[in-house]
Design goal:
With 428 residues, the chain is α/β, with parallel strands linked by helices. Helices cover 28% and strands 27% of the residues. It is built from 13 helices and 25 strands. It has helices at 19-25, 39-51, 160-172, 185-192, 208-212, 214-220, 228-234, 240-253, 276-288, 297-300, 305-321, 325-328, 394-401; strands at 6-11, 29-33, 55-59, 65-66, 73-76, 81-86, 95-97, 110-113, 118-126, 129-136, 138-141, 145-147, 176-179, 200-205, 223-227, 258-261, 292-295, 337-341, 347-351, 357-358, 362-366, 371-375, 409-413, 418-421, 424-427. Strand 9 (118-126) and strand 10 form a beta hairpin. Helix 4 runs parallel beside helix 6 (214-220) and helix 9 (276-288) crosses helix 11. It is globular. The two termini are 15 Å apart.
Length: 428
């Protein structure tokens, strides 16, 4: 059985020379994070990914707030006082932040760092000095991300760094560009106007504002990414699973891929195997309808980048073989539905709980269940196929089965949510 759920692996210092090995281990798409390194490094890493046969994802920085550079690691202990200073003014023991942040901070604001693992509250605010009280203990390093939920910040949605990233996209023509800190459909369309027409856009859902505009963002983007790090910093921990479910459902309703990201195998930064909880999280992402799972620090800076990809590939394949969908999505009716799908185009096929929606070329259709057919194509090896689960492109299957692509292929959905395509079975 070939694995249908795709793997995105981030290339970084730990894997800069390992693009072929990442692909061999199971990576379908290589992510180059434009928030770190310079344009020469980004260009070289992208070319290595493409030469290794992977699809390429360029991840734009967006208006991400980061700590300024400083040496070593700073331990922040609960109830300690910490001073923030503008970059260039921070003395030893103080944490540097971009100067434009200070005007938007108020007493009582939350300052979350390292994907929310460190959490502080603002006690005092001056023009170029802010005092925090640590509420959640942890360690921070220079250039790590900072979230300020509820702060009144006037940050541009499209930054100079994004402009440089889009210029690189026009040069390299990647398969995907990911947009960070999307707040509206306008943010998606702005990037679309700056990248090649054939490049697809992933909207990263990582803010409360994005959740408030989820449906319009979903309609505008080509795919969604559940960026649980920054989203988890903005929301309380117990709210993240429900938000994740909402994002998956929004994507599935319109037949667009959704990517699970952040802390998938977090323990593999240091350890050779993930925890059982991490394995269960990734496997149940398959049951929830994820089309792809992304490794971030695990493959970029972790101690075991190849093992992380190999392990994730085994976990995803095992989850697909286990047919979790039959448990998670009980059949609404025993009635069998079938559709005749034109084989001229690539298509996604999946069950839809709402009204019948048929999109893309259809030769004929008859249904007693709700069937969704969406035209879709991802170039390169990183083809993300599926709404719930997926099939090979119909034109490819037609060739394999000796059929005329113009006649179409018959696809049947049975009462258990299984799809029968000629003599082959796929999860629908």
């Amino acid at each position: 059985m070939s694995r249908l759920t795709r793997i995105l692996a981030t290339i970084g210092p730990a894997s800069a020379e390992l693009a072929p090995e990442l692909v061999q281990a199971g990576a379908d798409c290589i992510r180059v994070n434009l928030s770190h390194g310079n344009v020469d490094w980004h260009r070289e890493a992208s070319r290595k990914a493409l030469s290794a046969g992977a699809a390429l994802l360029l991840d734009l920085p967006g208006p991400k707030i980061r700590l300024g550079p400083f040496e070593g690691v700073r331990s922040l202990v609960r109830h300690d006082r910490v001073v923030l200073r503008p970059e260039g003014m921070a003395a030893d023991g103080e944490l540097p932040l971009p100067a434009e942040i200070f005007s938007g901070l108020r007493v009582g604001n939350v300052v979350a760092m390292v994907d929310g693992r460190v959490r502080c509250h603002v006690l005092e605010v001056e023009k170029d000095r802010v005092v925090l009280e640590v509420r959640r203990t942890g360690e921070v390093r220079g250039r790590q991300g900072v979230s300020l939920p509820g702060a009144n910040l006037a940050l541009p949605s499209f930054t100079k760094a994004d402009e440089r990233g889009c210029a690189l996209a026009r040069e390299l023509k990647p398969h995907w560009v990911a947009i960070s800190f999307v707040c509206s459909a306008d943010d998606v369309e702005r990037v679309r106007s700056e990248v090649p027409a054939e490049t697809k856009l992933i909207a990263k859902i990582e803010t409360v504002r994005a959740m408030d505009c989820l449906h319009e963002i979903t309609a505008s983007a080509d795919a969604l990414m559940i960026a649980r790090g920054d989203l988890g910093a903005e929301l309380d921990l117990h709210e993240v699973p429900a938000a994740q479910h909402r994002i998956v459902q929004a994507a599935r309703r319109v037949g667009k891929p959704v990517v699970l990201a952040t802390q998938v195998f977090e323990s593999m930064h240091e350890h050779a195997v993930p925890t059982r909880a991490e394995v269960s999280d990734a496997a149940h992402g398959v049951a929830a309808g994820m089309d792809a799972v992304m490794l971030s620090g695990e493959s970029a800076v972790g101690a075991h980048p190849i093992a992380a990809v190999e392990t994730l590939a085994r976990v995803l394949l095992a989850a697909e073989e286990a047919s979790f969908e039959a448990v998670a999505h009980a059949p609404a009716s025993p009635q069998v539905a079938s559709v005749l799908v034109a084989a001229r185009d690539h298509a996604w096929i999946g069950l839809e709980p709402g009204a019948i929606k048929l999109a893309g070329p259809l030769a004929a259709a008859r249904t007693g269940k709700h069937i969704l057919v969406r035209a879709a194509r991802l170039p390169g090896r990183g083809l993300m196929r599926g709404v719930h689960r997926s099939v090979d492109p119909p034109s490819v299957l037609a060739g394999r089965l000796g059929l005329d692509p113009a006649e179409g292929l018959e696809v049947e959905i049975d009462g258990n949510g299984r799809m029968l395509l000629m003599d082959r079975r796929f999860d629908a």
